[in-house]
């Protein structure tokens, strides 16, 4: 009997580890979604550079989180020295896993490979940094951006992650009573806060705003690509939210995972429909870019609590997010905060809504707990990011020259164009 139970626990370990890895791979695929979305929403002369940013930031995020970020956030050791290697998983280690599983039972958090946990967590770091790339597009120096990514992924993000998901005290002063299932605040609002600091310091693109208050539209170069990116993100989000159960084995948890998938999809659909309708009422046209951002807004809104809401409530939460994002994008332009892809609105404004939407379905969450958590994350990320951006501005500069911006950062930063047969470099 005991032997059979041990085999079951070993199988559960394998299943939970495999689920982690598959969900991590889905979230990694979101990097492709961000790359395609941003490449579609920027002008043609800036496409190669934004793609370079996205692929490079993923590599930087993975490396910095491996070196020190995971240690700061989860005490995983410098260079993952605290993660059990293949050689270390000997009979004694296996016995320890089985003993821990036996004590916890099937209803509690299961055991899984430390390496799988790192892999799942690291793609979240890359997601937060991907939010920044779109907001500062078309006028930021590539190497200044990557230098910021080093600090963001190795220090700024892991610190606030240690206070929230790991439960550490904020600089030893207070602990957060904050609920955020998969990261509406911890990942999305954090990325938006870093992006906002950069955008405020960077300034708007040349010609975006006129002297008399007029706002000029800079249409994206490839809306089919932006649409593809949105669908990729939508798909990857099932790993983002679904993997955050941190477990699969067990009937109760499996049912929770299914609810998370259902609600994630419902919120995205609700967000898109709401944004499309609001855009039609405001502009008289079915604005595709607003619809795409509406779907993403729905996903961000439900991320803080995708398990507990009913499907109807999840749809409503997403729809409110989709409505908010349209008004936010319009307001940002009126405030002359130039965000080429709407990242600050989608991930920041709607991320805040997602944090407080938790109160609609989670009886254990409190308004003050959510508020304090939100303010702690935002203030920490925004202030530290602003400091880092200012240092980079003083040391190496963060904005390309006016001439390079006019010609396109593809040529000045990367020396090549994404569409050489169709683009002369000037628009």
Write a structural description.
By secondary structure, the chain is mainly α. Helices cover 69% and strands 0% of the residues. It has 14 helices and no strands. The protein is globular and about 75 Å long. It starts with a helix and ends in a 13-residue tail after the last helix. The mean pLDDT is 93.
Structural features:
mainly alpha, Ammonium transporter fold, 0% strand
Strands, helices and their partners?
Layout: H1 2-41, H2 47-74, H3 91-104, H4 114-135, H5 142-164, H6 184-202, H7 223-242, H8 251-283, H9 288-303, H10 311-334, H11 343-357, H12 367-395, H13 402-407, H14 409-414
Helix pairs in contact: 1-2, 1-3, 1-4, 1-7, 2-4, 2-5, 4-5, 4-6, 5-6, 5-12, 6-11, 6-12, 7-8, 7-9, 8-9, 8-10, 9-10, 9-11, 10-11
Kindly summarize this structure in a few lines.
The protein has 427 residues and is mostly helical.
N-to-C SSE series? HHHHHHHHHHHHHH
Biggest sheet details: none
| Proportion of residues in helical segments | 55-70%
Output the CATH topology.
Ammonium transporter fold
Strand content: under 5%
Low-pLDDT sequence parts: none
Arithmetic mean pLDDT? 93
Shape: globular
Task: Report the CATH architecture.
Answer: Orthogonal Bundle
Total discrete domains: 1
Distance from first to last alpha carbon: 74 Å
Number of beta strands: 0
Compute the number of helices: 14
Radius of gyration: 22 Å
| CATH H level, superfamily name | Ammonium transporter AmtB like domains
- Structural class of the secondary structure composition? mainly alpha
